[in-house]
Amino acid sequence: MHKILWNKKSKPIFFRILVYGILFQIIFMLFVYKTEDQKEEPLFLEYDATNNYMNVCSLPVYDYWHPSIKYEIVDQKSIDKCPTEPLTELVNGTWRILEKGMNCSARKPKIPPKFPENPPNVVVFLVDSLSTGAAKRSLPKTLSTLSSQLEAVEFPFVNKIGENSLANKMVLWFGVSVSPDVSIFEEFKDHGFMTLHVDDENHQKGFKAHHYLNLNNGFCPNQLQNSFFIFMGAQGLNSDSEIGSVEANNPFLSISIPKKLRRKNPTVLEIMKQNSRKLQTHFDTRATILDILKYQPAAIFNNRTLLEISGERGHSYLRRQPSLPRTCGRLPIQPEYCICQVEKVTVTDENLRNRFGNLLVDHMNELLDRSNLTSICEKFELRKTLSLLHHGHINPSDTNHTYDLTILTDFAQFKTILTHNKNVDQILFAKILNGEAGDCARQHDLYSLSNNQTRCDDLLNEWDPEIPVLLIDLDFLENLKKEDCQWDETKRVKIGVHVKEAMIDTTQFDIVLYNRPEGKDFLEFFEDGKRIIPKRFETRKFGNFEIPTNIQKFMEFYKRSKLVECLGLEMDRDTSEENYNPEYAEKVLRKNESKFDMRRMLGKLEDSHEITVVSKEEGTPAIDLFVMYDYVEDGKVIYRYIPGLNNDGTKYRYTHLLLDPSCAAEMHGHLFWILCNPIEQLKHEYGPLWYRDHPTSYFAWNHSGKNIVVAGNFTEEEMENNGPTRRKYSNFQKNLV
Known about the structure:
- The chain is of the alpha+beta class.
- It folds into 4 domains: 67-71 and 109-337, no CATH class; 344-434, Roll (Nuclear Transport Factor 2, Chain: A), CATH 3.10.450.10; 454-559, no CATH class; 572-736, no CATH class.
- It has 19 helices and 31 strands.
- Strands 1, 10, 11, 12, 13, 14 and 15 form a 7-stranded antiparallel sheet that branches.
- A hairpin with a 2-residue loop joins β21 (539-542) and β22 (545-548).
- α5 (165-174) packs parallel to α11 and α14 packs antiparallel against α15.
- It comes from Caenorhabditis remanei (Caenorhabditis vulgaris).
C-alpha cells in the first residue's frame, strides 16, 4: 500500500525536481562559466597564436567546399536593379562593340632591334574576380587540363595588394606606377614582341598594344605548349563570410612553362613548386614576367639564382627567392588584405566594443571634416558594434593589441583593423572598408575616407621637382600621416635626390643626395656625415615624388640612421630580433656568394641565436654575431640582451643598456642597429675603468663580466635535435672552415 502510494504521489514530484535541477545546472554553467573572450571555431588548418606579423605567416589552408562558401554563392546579393548596360555583345561566335563612337585601330610597329630567335610567347589570361577557391569550385575541368596537359603549377597563396581590380592590375602591368613609360606591354614591344590586349571596360585607361582580339581567327592549342601561359585572377569576389573575406584577397594563379623547357630543365618546375608553397604577390608575378623577357633568355632559361631587379618589389617564381620569412609584414601587403591566418578571439566586453566603435565613428567624421566634405556627406552615428576580434591570445601585459572591428552606422557597415598601444593609449586605424552601400551610386561621386588628402595633394602638385625624388622631410611626413598638410611656405622641404640625377632648384627644396649601392641592403644618405636606412621599404608614387607608404616606420628608420664607424675595440656584433635578416646566414653558407665561411650557428632565433663567421683570408680573427632581444616585464622593456650558450645547455644573457636614440652601422653590406654612444655600454659591461688592462688567470666568458645573467637551460633533447649544441655543428664546422 505504501509502495503504491509513493509511486502515485512522488513520481511527478521527482520528475519536477529532476527537470528543474537540470535547468538550474544549465543556467549556472551559462553564467558562472561565461568568459569575456570567446574563441572562433577554426575554419583553417593553422592559425598564428603569437600575432608575430613580421616573422610568421600561417597560410590559409581550408576546405574549398565549406558550407559557408556554398551559402554565399547561393544567397549572394543581386545588383540587377543597378543602372548598368552591356558594353559588348557575343552572338554566334561574333563579337561586336555596342557603345557608339568606339572603334578599333592598328598601328605599324617600329623596327625592333635584334633579339634571340624564336623566343617563347607569353600569354596572360586574366579573369577579373577569380579567387583560388572560386577557381577550384567553378573551373575544375580547366584546372585539370592545365595540370595534365601543360603541367601548370598553381600558386594557392597569392595575396592581393590593392582594394579593387584596377589597383591590382596596376601592380601587375605597371609595378604600381601609372606612368605609361613603364607598362609591361612597352617592355615587350621594346624587345621585339607583338602585343595584344583585350579589355571590355572602355571607361578605364587602357594599354597601347599591337592588336586586339578577333575571336573569328581562333587559337591553336599547340601554341600554349610553346608558351609561358599564365592563368590568373586580379582579386576574388567580396563576401561577408570568414572564408569569403580571405578569398577576396587571394587571387588565383597558375603558370605553365613551354614544353621544351619542362623537358630540358626539370629543376625549374621544382623551384616553382617550392615558391608556390610560400606567400606571394603580383609584384612577384610581374618580376617573373620581366625575368622571362629580359634575364632568362641570356641563360637559356637555366638561371635559378636570386635576382634583384632594380626598381621592382617582387622576385621571380623561376628562381630561388630570398630566405627571409615571407610574411605580410615583410612583403608590401597591408594588414587589411593579409591572408595569413591569425588566431582571433571574439571580445564580448561591451564597454570596449562601444569605445572602439565610437572612436571609429569619430575618426570617420574627422576625415570628412578635414576633407571639406561635411556639406555633401552625412555625419555618421554609431548604431552597433557588430564584431570585435582580437588577433592572437589576449595577454593583458602586452603593449600592442590588434583587432578586427566591424560597426553599423545609420547608413552603412564599415570594417577596419585597429591597433591599440596601451602604454601611450594610442589607437591607429587601417584603411576603412565599406560593404555594398555604394554599388548602385553610378551617377554620384564616391569618396574614400582614407584618401581625402586634398590639401596635401595640392602642395605636392605645386612643388613638382621635375625629376624623381624621395620625400624624406620628417616634419612634412608627420603632417601627411595626420592628413593635415598646412605648411610654412618659407620653409624648404627636404628631399632625397639620387647622386646620378640632375640638380634642381634649391630655393624650394633642401636636397640630400643618396645612393643605392649594389650588393648592400641599405640606402646611403650623405647628410650629417652619412646615414643609412634599409633599402626595401614600400613607397607610393605621386607625380615625381616617391613617398613612404608606412610613414611611421620610415621615420623611425631615418631617426636612427646616423652611421657610426667601428671603434675597433671588439669583433662582436648584434642586431635586434625584429630586424635580423636570416638571408645573411644563407649568404655565408653559399660559399660563392660571400668572402666568409660559417664556423658555427647556435641557439634558437626566438631567444638565443648566434653565429660565428671567419674570413677566407688567412690570419684574420673569427667574428661573433648575436641577435639582440628585449626582456619585458609588465609590458615594459627592462633591458636588452644578447645570448650566450654553454656546452651543458645553460643559457646566459649579456645585458645592454636602454640607450636612445640608436644609430646604424654596416657589416658585410648589411645594416645593423647599434648604440650611438658605445662607451656607456662598455662601462656597464666592464666597469668605469674599462680602458685599463686587468691581468688575471681566472677570466671566464660566462661569469666574469658585470652584465651576465643566467637564464635557464636547454633540455638534452633540445641540445641534440634543435641545434644549440657544439657537438651537432662539429662536422658542420669541418665542412665549412
